[in-house]
Amino acid sequence: MIDPQTPLSRVGEKAFLEHLERRIPLGPGVVLGVGDDAAALEGLVPKALVTTDSLVEGIHFRREWAPPRLLGRKALSVNLSDVAAMGGTPRHATVSLCLPADTTFGFVDELYDGLLERAAENAVNLVGGNVTSTTGPVVIDITLLGQGDGLLTRRGARPGDRILVTGSLGAAAAGLMLLGQGVRVDAEGALASLGPWTESSAGPLLRCLLAVLDPRPPIGLGRSLGEAGVAHAAIDVSDGLSSDLRRLCEASGLCARVDAFRIPVDESASVVARARGREALDLALHSGEEYQLLLAVPEDRVEEATGLALVWHVDLTDIGAFEEGDPDVFLRTATGMRSLLPGGHDHFAGVEIPAPGQPVR
């Protein structure tokens, strides 16, 4: 048994990889999994889906903020969300890690606890990957393979389609604000530190923290929508509603009109926003890392989509419609209609996570 505090530099790559090979089981459709030059898979029909995403320390997370088990769960979830937005079924994943030599064995083992948990919840096999040392930050890179037939894309929205969004929005942005204020969860995802808040706010605080640290995309609903052919187009809300809805408009060559009063603002995010003098609607419009689904659904199939959402216990809200016009997003408020500029995360327009000691915006 290796002491969890042992750095990987002392264990060595061979022993570390052998440990991972023992931990990761073969699943259905896996002919050859971890331990060879490549995985051998079967059964990826009729169409194979491939997506990849990275979590980079200092950009997407800070180790003092994110327990490694939750970090592992999130790393797979952000890829699962992409497959859900395509209407597909996730099947197999590879995991590549860039780790400083002083990374402890316990950190990586807990990271894999989370990866294996989220993989098991979604019948996904971890089939290999790569581990390398780095003098830079921790990088977790995952490639996910899936399959599907009635695929959803960003290009299929049509004039008159209703704009539907799953879940509620704003909690992830509120969670990021809370992390900057010193609110923390422990390794099991329970509230560990209230920061400047009181115990009476514990429930909303925890919901917001878990929204950003352990998102749960509506994967089953995405698959069902693809199989039923209910939606014309879809995208996951990973960079903010204002940004991702504009992407749907640009891909489909349409404009969109949404009603501010219909936006499903998360109740816990509202609690945090009000206490800090922020507008909860702004959080809901621009919060990245929500990993909800944004859909274009013909009006005569909205009821069918709502029925599928009920089966999967997912809230589904109609927030507006697509129309003919140059790609743009318009927001109707009590004071009139205005263009909604994208305000979500852009990787090359600044770092979303503040430096230590700096305020969270």
Question: Secondary structure elements and their pairing?
Answer:
Layout (H helix, E strand, L loop, with lengths): L7 H4 L1 H11 L6 E3 L7 E2 L5 E10 L11 H18 L3 E11 L5 H17 L3 E9 L5 E10 L13 E5 L4 H10 L3 E2 L5 E3 L8 H12 L5 H10 L4 E4 L4 H12 L2 E5 L7 H9 L4 H7 L6 E5 L4 H10 L4 E8 L4 E6 L2 E4 L22
Parallel strand pairs: 4-5, 11-14
Antiparallel strand pairs: 1-2, 3-6, 4-6, 7-12, 7-13, 8-9, 10-12, 11-13, 14-15
Helix pairs in contact: 3-4, 3-7, 5-6, 5-9, 6-9, 9-10
Q: Could you name the key traits of this structure?
A:
single chain; 361 residues; alpha+beta; Phosphoribosyl-aminoimidazole Synthetase, Chain A, domain 2; 7-stranded mixed beta sheet; 4-stranded mixed beta sheet; 33% helix; 24% strand
Mean pLDDT: 88
**Strand arrangement, largest sheet?**
10-12-7-13-11-14-15
Number of domains: 2
Distance between the termini: 44 Å
Q: What's the number of helices?
A: 11
The CATH architecture of the largest domain can be given as: Alpha-Beta Complex
Element string (H = helix, E = strand): HHEEEHEHEEEHEEHHEHEHHEHEEE
